[in-house]
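COURSE: Structural Biology Practicum
ASSIGNMENT: Worksheet 4, Part C
STUDENT ID: 0417
INSTRUCTIONS: Below are two proteins. For each, the amino acid sequence is given first, followed by its structure token string. Answer the questions at the end about the second protein only.

PROTEIN I
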Amino acid sequence: MTDPVLILIADPTDPGAWRWARVGADGRLIASGTGDSASLPGKGDERVVLVLAGEAVRGRRIDLPAKTDAQARAALPYLLGDELGDSARSLHFVLDTGGAGERSVYWTEAAPLAARLAALEARDLTPDLITADFIALPATITPYALADGERAIRVAPEPTEGYAADLGLLSLLDPDLPAEALMPVRLDGLASRLAEGIARYSGPDFRQGAFAPRRAWGEIWLVWQRAAVLALALLVLAGAVVLAEGFKARSLADETDAATQAALRDAFPDVRGLPHLQSRLKALRGTGADPFLALSARLFAAAETVDGVMVNGLRFDRSEGRLSAAISAASFGDIERLKAAVAERGATFTEGASRQEGGRIISEITIGERP
């Protein structure tokens, strides 16, 4: 018995095409199909696994002295620079489990992977595992290959020695592979074999680095919003204490004022002192809405829809009614998707200076209310 699984197989020739199969807990195929992302089934209670085409994935063993996976991934473009050239900067690197020493490393183009994940996100099919076909298929003592239509998937005991390629190239790439080790397979058979391998999978999960699972922005925003409201309530209370005490406890009032000013600057950098806070509260009573919280809520809600986008800082200009933020994204395409998501929520989006840093795009943006 295994957990039920929905296997989503990326087509190797068409970036918008999919093959999929739903396999039950008994290992039997329940349903399967092909088509574009609109034809994918809805999410059920099963595990969702994205299987990349082996043609798009490469791997090898390499000695990694780094102590952490983050350090290792940062070093890989340099360690493999002679082999990969300038293309290393556009790649997503994946590590198997283990510490410093010789490890299996895999890489694939980051942009196509981001596009695949965006298509799945739109269908509410966030993967619980991302792997490649030649890694996920169950290995045996000796290598074998599956003839999947016009392509061959070679599976080896050492996963980095596996690959997928045109069927006609198999005899050139692996001349020692016995003829009986090549087995034809259709979608249903491929899905059943993948489900078998996934049930006891111990290989790498491609959800690493920029594609690592992240906490939902809605949850982060909820925690932040509660803290902001609490900070504002404390500020109002502290302001009332200061006014009530007056000259009776001037030193205590000064200490309280200093503490509240510090909290005020941390929570709302645009508010300048208690008089400004009082005018702000008066405005809030008049309008019934805080533009800072309203714009922040829209930004975080939009960021939640774009996988790989992080909001690193906020700055609000009350005189202009605009919220500025530092955005970290996996690609410029993610910035464009964030822009569209913000626009859907009724706000303007202006992109400022952008730069590349640590394999990610750092961009300064400004959002505001539509006129």
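PROTEIN II
(use this one for the questions)
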Amino acid sequence: MKRFRSFLIIIITALVLSACSSSKSNDVDSPSASPTSTADPAAPSDTASTDPSGSPQTSLFVEVKSGGSIIQSYTFNDKLENAVFRKHTSLPYGVYVPEFMDQREFSEGVEWGYGEPRNSFAIMDGSLIQPEFQQTEPDLATYKEYVGTDRSDPKMEYDYFSFHGESHELIIRFAYTIEEKAEALKLFLAMITSLRETHSNEDFKAGVFLTYDESSLDETQKAVLQCAMASMDAIIARDAKSFAKTLESQAIADALSFLIDDGNLYRFEELESITALDEKRYNVNVVYKRLSEESFLFNSSYAFTVRKNKDGEWKVANID
């Protein structure tokens, strides 16, 4: 009997050890045993471009360097409000701002706002401020540049966005009361897409600085080029009379008068080509930079169409 009991104990012990070994093996292979995150679910993600929902995100800044489209008005409270471009006082950026919003400066940047308590849109120097974000606004997490929300003030909400330029890091802040948030948020989201990089007039040298190999041009090409360059010189000088003399007619001068009157500065930099359209018509293709009144820098090209008139003179027939 004792032998039977001893044998039974041995068998039970073996079965228990086998079960433990099997359990350990299953634990290693089971996905449920992988480490779990201990991050605070209310804390913002380290990578602001990651949407927790996995949905594709949208960038708010798509026209910053190009100068972008001109914004003339915004819709606010079902009413069109005229907008004007306002520059930051110390950073090379600005936005289109509704005329009813006044400007104020503070230590970290510049804001435009309305009302009391004040609803405002601010551009701040990212090197001077590191805001703390206690919460995340799900509706704003769809934007790549959204970084977090501060609701520590029971009467106000502050939403923050970041922009990384070549030489500056910006923090954009929306501030609004709970009552104004719905309308103010729509307006501020429209304003943030109007962020533009600006350039100093003092750093921009206007003029005609075409680079080309004169020895590669025949006599006709040289004459055509000189005609086009006379037009460029008149544009740089904003001399309407001299400009008109380089053109085929006064009607063309009137049609192209915007090149003199639009307040832009031009720098003609490179001769791309001189192309014969026929025996009496050539295109002079040039690369240029343009600095707008708002201090936006554009890179583009013009084709000066030069044509020989009945008197045998080369005149500009169009600039496109």
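ANSWER KEY EXCERPT:
Q1: The helical segments are 2-29, 181-192, 219-237, 240-245, 250-255, 258-261.
Q2: The first strand starts at residue 73 and ends at 76.
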